[in-house]
Design brief:
This protein is α+β, with helices and mostly antiparallel strands. It contains 3 helices and 8 strands, in the order H-E-E-H-E-H-E-E-E-E-E. 21% of the residues lie in helices and 40% in strands.
Length: 155
């Protein structure tokens, strides 16, 4: 079976000096290798092909036969690494907290493993008869949410 650390070191060698970052590596028991990379401006297919060839040049099919897939993390998929949060500051996201409550708003800031989302909520405002839309900031810890993902907006 192909070692995940071996694949990681090969990918990190290719990433060195590039603005891409590693999101995930999965290796199944039948040696199907899936590598996900990302970039603040999106992932180009040419770069996926280049990384795929680089990995193939560093793994021997004579020692172990494998299937290789290299791609981007995917826009609607949950974030897996902190760098993805940094890439989407100022964008609409959806957060499912540990209690199962969903928050939809703008990813306002990221500090360490904490991130803040600004959500518009209706709240009773003193002196007003009806609830008003108010912006409320919620801070979460990346490891304490079920998921955070980018909301694709077609406006």
């Amino acid at each position: 079976m192909i070692n995940k650390d071996t694949v990681r070191s090969i990918v990190e060698e290719w990433l060195d000096g590039k603005e891409y970052f590693l999101v995930d590596i999965e290796i199944s028991p039948d040696d199907r290798i899936v590598v996900e990379i990302d970039h603040a401006d999106g992932v180009w297919i040419e770069d996926c092909v280049e990384l795929s060839r680089f990995i193939e040049d560093h793994l021997s099919r004579d020692e172990e036969d494998y299937e290789l897939e290299v791609g981007s993390a995917g826009l609607g998929q949950p974030f897996k690494v902190a760098q993805q949060y940094h890439c989407f500051v100022g964008k609409d996201v959806e957060v499912l907290d540990a209690d199962g409550k969903k928050y939809k708003g703008v990813l306002k800031a990221v500090e360490g493993n904490d991130f803040t989302v600004t959500v518009q909520e209706k709240q009773k405002v003193e002196g007003k008869k009806r609830p008003q839309l108010v912006e409320t900031d919620y801070t979460f810890h990346m490891d304490k949410v079920k998921y955070t993902k980018y909301l694709i907006n077609f406006k």
